[in-house]
Every structure is written in structure tokens, then in C-alpha cells.
Amino acid sequence: MELLKRAILERGSVVNKDILKVDSFLNHQIDVGLYNSIGKEFKKRFENAHVTKILTIEASGIGIACIAAQYFSVPVLFAKKTESLNTDSDCYESKVYSFTRKRDYKIRVSKKFLNKEDKILIIDDFLANGKAAMGLADIVEQAGAEIAGIGIVIEKGFQEGGKILRQRGFRVESLAIIDSMDKGQIKFRE
Amino acid sequence: MELLKRAILERGSVVNKDILKVDSFLNHQIDVGLYNSIGKEFKKRFENAHVTKILTIEASGIGIACIAAQYFSVPVLFAKKTESLNTDSDCYESKVYSFTRKRDYKIRVSKKFLNKEDKILIIDDFLANGKAAMGLADIVEQAGAEIAGIGIVIEKGFQEGGKILRQRGFRVESLAIIDSMDKGQIKFRE
After folding, report:
1. Contact B77/A21, CB-based, under 8 Å?
2. Which of B168, B110, B175 is nearest to B139 (CA)?
3. In this predicted complex, what is the ipTM?
4. pLDDT digits (tens, 9 = 90+) for A173-189
């Protein structure tokens, strides 16, 4: 997706060969116009997937999922990372290791909101090692629902997540795949 | 806002006199059509406030802020609750006590994204004791920016947050104000 790649090049910054900062438009400050283009592109790619619900994970995935859901006319469901007093006790749970936070955390989705008839589109802002997407897929499978696909805004192609998910047979659509960021140079996959 | 009140009555559930569950449409599963109506209503109420940016807090505020921002044609900025490797070190910080999580947490916004010329609309899903909104307002004031107003989806009118914020001179627009939930009966403020 050219508009996204241009935003990454012009407004992102490479911190080191592993870390890309896109906090000026994607995951801290949000360019809602760009989110709309991203949402339309997900709709185009999953046009015939008969998506019934979009599943994402807090926090950065929520805005993207909500904007995209407008084009699919389906509800959004977001997995919660922390337990609060208001969390439903009857939940599907999965464990996710976060490399950025250097610890395991549980993700939870209330059982009320997933059922066997659902065709779920999983959406997230980043795909790196794939742990978050695997946790979400695990939850969908626990519910006996179908995974229509996985929509990612930026895939770090030099990490293993995309490969693992595709080998497991999931349809992964990443709108920009970065193959390397060596010496501060972003190389996109063709 | 009648559509919202109807959703609360028909799809919400009163857990006890203090806790309202709206996780089927507002803060776990999301009815994006309702979010759109909420966004339009915020635009109507803050039509002449010359908002330059919407500020919210992760996680539930993000989707509402993104959908609302479409009507204002401004960026969204969301305060982060936890420190990760990718968090900017040059941040405005404030401390917030969460009654649902029973602990203090820090919220952070990168200094890059707030400046003196900004007129900030603060948006959140709930207003109860007002701690989150006060923390966000504190951050806006640290940046020397102006607070155009505070837009809340559901205000628990029987808690003190709304009163405190209005006494501080903020324009608070809550789309539904609940005055009591005694015996499972939701009473809205007229």
C-alpha cells in the first residue's frame, strides 16, 4: 500500500535495525485519514471473506479495527490485556509474550461475543514475532469460530511472525512488509 | 442522547449500584454504528470549539476518539498507561488512581504532539471519579495548550468526577448521565 509506505518513509523513524517508530501517525498520535485508507484496503483484500466480526487487541489495534469495521459493517471485539473488576469471569484466555515489555501477559475475550458461526478477521498494527496474533488466533479457535484472515498494517519481514502464521495456513495480509532496516534504511518487500 | 440511553437500557446490565456493564456495545465488543452516532453528537456539541486535536487514554477511549475525529478532521492522540521499550522518554506525565484496578498508574504523552497552539478535546468512555480526565487535563495544561472541552459517553452522575471537572471550569459534555442505579434501575438525569 503506497500511501502507507510513503508515511513510513516520511514520518517514521528507524531507532535501530529492529525498532521502527511510527508514533506520529500510527500508534500514539493517529492520522485518522490514513486509518481510513488502511480500513478501505483491508476491505478490498478481505472483500469475499464474509467477515462477521473484527478481533483486535488493546491498545493500538482498537482504532484501526474501529475505522476498518465501518467498511465491513461488522462489530469490533478487542482482547483485554489486564484484569479489572469489570472483566467478565467467563472468558477465553491465551498467554502472550511481549518482547517490547519483556514479560508474559494474559489476553482475554468474553465467551459471550464469539461463537461457532463467526468468521473472524484479526487486525493489528504490527506483526513481528507473531505472539499477539497467535494468541488471538488461539482464542478464536477455542471458540470454534473460523479465522477469515489476519490483517496487519506493518509486518517486520525480518522477524519470524509472518512466516509462522502463513505456514500455519492463515491468510495474512500485511499492508507494508519491511525486509530490513539496516543502517537506518528501510527496505520494503516488493 | 436518546440512542445511547436506549442502548444502555436494552443492552447494558447493572451489576450493582456502582457498576454498569456495557461490554456488549461500548468497551469490549464495539457497535461501530453507535460509535458513529456518538462521534456526530460530540461534533454537534463542540461544533464551535475550534478543536485541533482529540486526546484520549488507552484502551476504551481510542476507538471512540478515532471515530469522532472523522467528524472533526483532526488527529487523535492517546495517552499511554504503561512504559514499553518504544515509549518516548521526552513525555508529559501524570498520575492517575484507578478505582477499578485499585492502583495508581502513570499516563504519558510525548511532548512532540502537544503544543501551545492546540485546542484539545478530551474524550473518554466513562466519567466516574474523574481521575483519568483530570490526568489528561493536567497533561494538556503542562503543554500550555487549551482545553476545548471534555466529551464523555457515560457519566456516573452519582460520583463526584463531573462536579469536580465542572467546578474547575471545564466544559463537560456527557452524552448520558446516570443519576442512580439502585435496585438495578437506571435513572438518567433529565
Report:
1. no
2. B110
3. 0.96
4. 999 999 999 999 999 99
